[in-house]
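User: My collaborator sent over this chain with a note saying "see what the structure looks like." That's all I know about it. Can you take a look?
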Amino acid sequence: MLDFSGAKFTEYVDFTGAQFTKRAGFSGAKFTKRAGFSGAKFNDEANFSGAKFNDEANFSGAYVKEAVFTQAQFKEADFYKTQFVENADFSEIKSTVEKAHPHLDFHNVQFDDPEHITFLNDNLSEVSFVNTDITRVRFGEDVV
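Assistant: Without extra context I'll predict from the sequence alone. Here is the result:
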């Protein structure tokens, strides 16, 4: 396992095109500046539970076998053309900006197993799912 849990990244972090062959742990990590994961390949679980992104998080074009983003905080995140292969949990995501909602772009995202994609206790009023099939994605009753 590659473990960055609880790490503090105070400068721009660039994992663009990185290949994670084992579980990647970023739970509780804090990203002060931009975080680049575009084109990254997560062949096992990518755990970002409780991670805090104070600037843009770019996951565009990433391949993610399993993802955990429960209680993650975002200012804005770009998931354009990301492929989620199995489970992905986006429950209880929040904004890093007080009294705001996270701006998330799921434009052209591919959910291979949509029954195992979860959004619970989320305010999705600033989220875009343009050209993304969310027909069988699980949304909780309390999602806005």
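A starting point for your reply to your collaborator: The domain at 2-139 is CATH 2.160.20 (Pectate Lyase C-like).
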